[in-house]
Input
Amino acid sequence: MMSSALRARLTALGLITPLVAFLVIFFFWPLATMMMASVTDGTVRGVMPETAAAVAHWDGASPPTPEMQAALVADLRQPVDQLAFGDAVRRLNSELSGFRSLMSRTANAVKAAPEGQPVELAAIDPRWGEARYWQAMKAAMPLYTDRYLLAAADLERDAKGEIAAVDASASANRQIMLRTFMIAASVTILCAAIGLPYALIAASASGWVRAMLLIAVLLPLWTSLLVRTAAWFILLQNEGLINEALQRIGLISQPLPLIFNRTGVVIAMTHVLLPFMVLPIYSGLLTIPANLMPAAASLGASRLKAFRHVLLPLAFPGLMSGSLLVFMVALGYYITPALVGGPNDQMISSVIAFFATGTANWGMAGALGLILLAVTTVLYLVYGRLSRSPTMVST
Output
């Protein structure tokens, strides 16, 4: 007979099994896949296994050995998926320009040669006699690499294997990453500046007034993100409602540039993310006793002093939660900057989408995504530390 305690444990395990399966399939597995893609590089190794084994023992300075050339010929004679071969050629070409034409010519010549007949690679193309092409192949062979993580920060390994900065014209990932953080920080500050007073008003109101204020906050969440962004695309145009209203009341004589620039991106993202700031602050304010402010006033504190020393410290956890949530969500925004922003306002999510769908470079996409994951994890840990700090508790 099964004991009642064991039965209760099995029942509890059965209840949480769907949740665990959901987290593993839709959260942990994609994260693990992204992290593995950012540090693995088996594209060339999978297509040229014999060459990988041959160049592993090469010192990189001496001329290419006959064993290395024979291994490359043997790999090129093997039937291989053309898509995989194309990916390997692109990987080699990114390591050293010229591999695309070199590998295409060599593969055709090797396959056209009779079976069993030795093939002289230098006779097909003199570049096979140069050590730098074999050095590029040797550099592309390791299964695990830090190439993508370094490239995400505009770094690379030089000929000596040391980390160095890439040419400023070769990549701008660091600049785009910094731009992403600046836009996310600007949106967070604006959401806090608008959301805190709004939450205070909503928490102090009652009846239908509070209901209408909350509906105004929740309404954007019930609307598609694409629809909200398209609405701002119409409002922010030179002939849009905002510029037309400002011109009619005489505040401006010429339309303000509000679209296809940083201003439009920040305005649209602030509107979209404002509910994520208001709701945590509002929830925290509801837990504050209503008699604290009158008590502070009865002790001689002015309204400003009571707000600074009584209400604001108690609302600070909600403000921190909203700021963390808005900042983390803003880091990964893609649709709004793509529609409302200009070429110099695209965020890192656009670069990730380009590498993932435009060039099928999952390594770079995973490396950039891993950087965003690391930043958000650090922010979450900092928030957890601040929320448990003795200073906040004593305040």
The CA atoms of residues 47 and 85 lie 6 Å apart. The beta strands are 155-157, 163-165. The chain has 20 helices and two strands. Residues 389-395 have pLDDT under 50 and may be disordered.
